[in-house]
């Protein structure tokens, strides 16, 4: 009878440890996913309208050898137009 209680106790311990390690696993997986997501979505600022947006959705333009990213083509065109005005 005592052995049965012992077995039951060990079984409960086993289950507790198992569910705990499962939680840990899920947590680390979630953290990995969020960090990967952050790498995918680098937030950068549109130099024209000063709005933050994910870099991969931005419009890339190279101006005077420098890379610029804009939230839209309109912003890129307006920024380029402004640059042209400054040069004059
Ligand atoms: Zn913009």
How would you describe the overall organization of this protein?
The protein is α+β, with helices and mostly antiparallel strands. It has two domains: 1-40; 42-88, Ribosomal Protein L24e, Chain: T (Roll), CATH 2.30.170. It is 61% helix and 18% strand. It contains two helices and four strands, in the order H-E-E-E-E-H. The protein has a two-stranded antiparallel ribbon with strand order 1-2. The longest helix is centred in the first third of the chain and has 39 residues, at 2-40. It is rod-shaped, with a radius of gyration of 27 Å. The model has no long low-confidence stretch (mean pLDDT 84). It binds zinc ion (ZN).
Write the layout of secondary structure elements.
Elements: H1 2-40, E1 43-45, E2 52-54, E3 59-63, E4 66-70, H2 73-87
Antiparallel strand pairs: 1-2, 3-4
Q: What is shown here, in short?
A:
The protein is α+β, with helices and mostly antiparallel strands and 88 residues long.
């Amino acid at each position: 009878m005592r052995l049965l209680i012992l077995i039951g106790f060990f079984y409960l311990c086993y289950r507790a440890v198992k569910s705990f390690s499962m939680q840990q696993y899920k947590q680390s997986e979630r953290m990995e996913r969020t960090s990967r997501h952050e790498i995918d979505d680098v937030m950068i600022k549109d130099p024209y309208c000063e709005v933050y947006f994910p870099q991969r959705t931005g419009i890339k333009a190279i101006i005077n050898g420098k890379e610029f990213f804009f939230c839209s083509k309109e912003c890129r065109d307006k920024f380029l137009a402004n640059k042209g005005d400054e040069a004059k």
